[in-house]
Amino acid sequence: xxxxxxxxxxxxxxxxxxxxxxxxxxxxxxxxxxxxxxxxxxxxxxxxxxxxxxxxxxxxxxxxxxxxxxxxxxxxxxxxxxxxxxxxxxxxxxxxxxxxxxxxxxxxxxxxxxxxxxxxxxxxxxxxxxxxxxxxxxxxxxxxxxxxxxxxxxxxxxxxxxxxxxxxxxxxxxxxxxxxxxxxxxxxxxxxxxxxxxxxxxxxxxxxxxxxxxxxxxxxxxxxxxxxxxxxxxxxxxxxxxxxxxxxxxxxxxxxxxxxxxxxxxxxxxxxxxxxxxxxxxxxxxxxxxxxxxxxxxxxxxxxxxxxxxxxxxxxxxxxxxxxxxxxx
Length: 329
Description:
Distance between the termini: 50 Å
Number of helices: 13
Strand order of the largest sheet: 3-2-4-5-7-6-12
Strand content: 15-25%
Largest sheet: 7 strands, mixed
């Protein structure tokens, strides 16, 4: 598939396939991941090629799925768990927060638990309740977990492989409304030019405002940057990629240069991850800031019915409004 145009979902699929070919201890687990290939077809064809012992259709029991994965990891396997929808992760929260995240510390470093938990996240697909959540902040607040989010097919392919080879447990967020968006990816060269898993990436250089995003919001911010350029404003868009650990050096270098910053995410603004970013940036860049760090996100309400989600999700106009407000100070 060298040089082919592929979707983000296919990028994850190819990354999983590559990891399974490289390491027989990699197993994929989850509801309908085998014969069906997952509800988004991300694992399509893997059970056919690797067998039912390595691509396992599990019962509908998220706590049991994650608990089983922890046990497998303790026996030397590298389980990759799929949570079918973001809102379904909460039944497994106890296993993730009190067991998976703590095992390395509890064993004084003697035990590693290399479990990857894949979570399709965010809205924009017209889904029903509990299918459009953005729960990243619950896990960034949990010490002992790596939390990453891909936003494009190339990163999907490389980051899932990096997550699988990590000795730490990884929460891997996948933007479900971007699953079918395509980009050209050279899978051969991608393997030799990976960005480190914990590094942010400047995806659109700019001079006037730093815009921070991850997962599904990255494309929205790139669209805003294109629109702002027509008005003579240059936005520097940074895809964080890793939320914990956070590449704060890349962020602060940009903000120190632009003097302005807007953070964009789908989760509610109140106590969202953008609050942590705003605090860190203010601490590090206080004397360079020309305006407060502004946040664009969802309101503090449950995720709305699908016919209203366009009013809930940050869009180009709301990002540009925040940019405008940074120049009003």
